[in-house]
Amino acid sequence: QGTRDHAPAHAALRDRLLAAVVACFKRHGAAAIDTPVLELRETLMGKYGEDAKLIYELQDQGGELLALRYDLTVPFARYLAMNKITNMKRYHVAKVYRRDNPATTRGRYREFYQCDFDIAGWFDPMIPDAECLKIVHEILSDLHLGDFLIKVNDRRILNGVFAVCGIPESKFITTCSAVDKLDKMPWEEVRSEMVGEKGLSPEAADHIGEYVQLHGGLDLIERLLQDPKLSQNKLAKEGLGDMKLLFEYLTLFGITGKISFDLSLARGLDYYTGVIFEAVLLQQENDHVEDPVSVGSVAGGGRYDGLVGMFDPKRRKVPCVGVSIGIERIFSILEQRVKASGEKVRTTETQVLVATPQKHLLTARLKLISELWDAGIKAEMLYKKDPKLLKQLQYCENMGIPLAAIVGEQELTDGVVKLRDVATREEVRMPFYIKFQKC
Amino acid sequence: QGTRDHAPAHAALRDRLLAAVVACFKRHGAAAIDTPVLELRETLMGKYGEDAKLIYELQDQGGELLALRYDLTVPFARYLAMNKITNMKRYHVAKVYRRDNPATTRGRYREFYQCDFDIAGWFDPMIPDAECLKIVHEILSDLHLGDFLIKVNDRRILNGVFAVCGIPESKFITTCSAVDKLDKMPWEEVRSEMVGEKGLSPEAADHIGEYVQLHGGLDLIERLLQDPKLSQNKLAKEGLGDMKLLFEYLTLFGITGKISFDLSLARGLDYYTGVIFEAVLLQQENDHVEDPVSVGSVAGGGRYDGLVGMFDPKRRKVPCVGVSIGIERIFSILEQRVKASGEKVRTTETQVLVATPQKHLLTARLKLISELWDAGIKAEMLYKKDPKLLKQLQYCENMGIPLAAIVGEQELTDGVVKLRDVATREEVRMPFYIKFQKC
């Protein structure tokens, strides 16, 4: 339940999608790494907050206590610390596992692909962060998913806001997770959760509300930098200064049109320490789709400067920033679009079917196909001794094979092969000598 | 333990290797499918004989009882039965899991890739089987692994041999697993295991010994077809007849030079019902390798006509034949060869580094690299505001980046970019207008 087989049409479409994402990661100079699906349980514990209950654990059959990886970020941080790597740009495309309630219509599964790109190392501020946003912009543009918006915020700004609103530091994380719900529920409900469950004062909640409902661009950053309270808060000031720098870089990249500085963005995970971002599609389906999918965010990420240090015996930090592409959600949109368009996804790449119009020509077909394979040509034949020509041509049509290479008795005598364009039925004779043997 | 991270140089080499294997599978018209890493425990039980103890089981955290897949064949058979598919040619490249004693120097891990190609369906005899052997031949040739031999046998012939030697049918499987050890120990030891542990009579064991030490080609098949006892056994006769047909087809493919009909080949798994085969490297290392790897078999497979029926409620059979490429063993050979040659594996595909010779040119670099990315060019820059030119060129040399695109103040004024060949230090100036901004 919540896992699935990928049938050929699925797998072919998914491979195309992954290829586009990987092409972008490679364009940005990332190297591939791969880590095991199994991690030590202790590696995963204490990294995901409340979500730790969704981790799949392996049975104790002797040996180490193991669990299935929950994401690709924690294994990456563990990998950097274990190998004492302080500088790396890597991508990783692999499956992760969550004991979640699957919502399969929305592209949510218990086993699903993640596509991550991360930059680790001590660098000048906001240059790698800006590149991560550029990558999201490139991928969402390349895939023609329709209009999108990338919301950006900074954990330091959020924490600064909480501080100036009089929230004690011990309640930052829980307040953060309340703010995180603003994309799903109206402010009033979030406010009553803050006052009720989280125990904030109504005044503090209202004060937070004034901030977290703001969104804009450079103008908003400038305004907040002038804000009498926020500008007094060290963290907020740092965050806002970096946000301004980020917007300058994004302007050079020419992508600010799709970026929104949004103070309501909080992101669920504990380990973020700086910039955070999330991309959402603005129009999630085109008119042809009968059953529109609600997809939510299709990419997200941020800066996590403390995570690698948690795995280092000496707590040495390696700053990191990264992005994860929500490939499963994007896949379910593309799949619906393909379905709606009636387009047939080819599941193989076969270029030519080796066919015969008469009986007793298996030998000739085997010889011909063998030479085609050896020449690097993608070729198939039916696994029958004497298939009917019609069946062979129908197979081409069903599978989208563009050409048939036909050898009949006449062709063998003449030392040629008849090459037939399956769609147009045009035929040309090509020299091809096969030693004749009846079989 | 027994799992590993794949560092960039590993991952890059492995990706190349997998790409070569997948290219061959696609050349033969296979479609990709993907199945979950998690299978129901009951799906895996009773399929692997004694090896079932090596299956990783998940903890019971509520919901179904799960296990990690042990190979790709059983999930494929389960997939066919579940979806009532009776005709399919598919490949699957994915990781499988075994709680084995890892022998990591020989490329044996607890988490490892399998690359499988299988043909399912009711076809004329030996045509798909011959294609599987052709695939093994193509892949091992393409990878230039040195000389190799593909041993072929048939479970029906083995069972026929056991029958004419007076072994009761109840002891076929256990006798088979004794024979399977002939590639690792001499006949005398196998014989004493048969007589001791397995309880065969010394006469029966000696009789079996006369057969299972035979190997050859068409001549041997013909001889056994004339064997007064074997030719009376229905199973053996069927198997030998098909083996003859197989060799005819392999002759047409021109690959019999590397095929040996070998009666000692038994293969461990229970589910084989017809042709079985296994490829071994004859010279496993070249002279440059200091620490030669013993690799054993690098590919194997066979016909399993009964497995799909085990998953079908009405026990409907779908005949299958397939091959699995031992990619991890091949990888450890290639890796040692690369090490020995001193060749540096590039881990990224970056074509050009955007560099500056002076300070205060971050803006120009960001503009230029953004345009390169948008033009689909694989480009990197150092994440520093003012890196030294020497550092930038050293980065190119370390990472194998062939070109540097240099923008200095003069270039900006002239509206050009200096393109430098890192290896030859040749430079050309190319028109490239960037609006100048100090940063």
Describe the secondary-structure layout.
The structure is a homodimer of 439-residue chains.
Chain A: H1 8-27, E1 31-32, E2 38-40, H2 41-44, E3 66-68, H3 73-82, E4 88-97, E5 111-120, H4 127-142, E6 148-154, H5 155-164, H6 172-179, H7 187-195, H8 202-212, E7 215-216, H9 218-226, H10 234-253, E8 259-262, E9 275-281, E10 297-303, H11 307-310, E11 320-325, H12 327-341, E12 352-355, H13 362-374, E13 379-380, H14 389-399, E14 403-406, H15 409-414, E15 416-421, E16 427-431
Query: What is the CATH homologous superfamily assignment of the largest domain in chain A?
Result: Bira Bifunctional Protein, Domain 2
Task: Tell me the distance between the termini of chain A.
Answer: 50 Å
Strand order of the largest sheet of chain A: 1-4-5-11-10-9-6-8-7
Number of helices of chain A: 15
Structural class of chain A: alpha+beta
Helix content of chain A: 25-40%
Which percent band covers the strand fraction of chain A?
15-25%
Describe the structure.
- The structure is a homodimer of 439-residue chains.
- Chain A folds into two domains: 8-341, Bira Bifunctional Protein, Domain 2 (BirA Bifunctional Protein, domain 2); 352-431, Rossmann fold, CATH 3.40.50.800.
- In chain A, helix 5 runs antiparallel to helix 10.
- Helices cover 38% and strands 19% of the residues of chain A.
- In chain A, the strands form three sheets. The first copy, chain A, has a nine-stranded mixed β-sheet.
- Residues 287-294 of chain A have low confidence and may be disordered.
- Chain A is an alpha+beta fold.
- At the A-B interface, helix 1, strand 1, strand 4, helix 4 and helix 10 of A face helix 1, strand 1, strand 4, helix 4 and helix 10 of B.
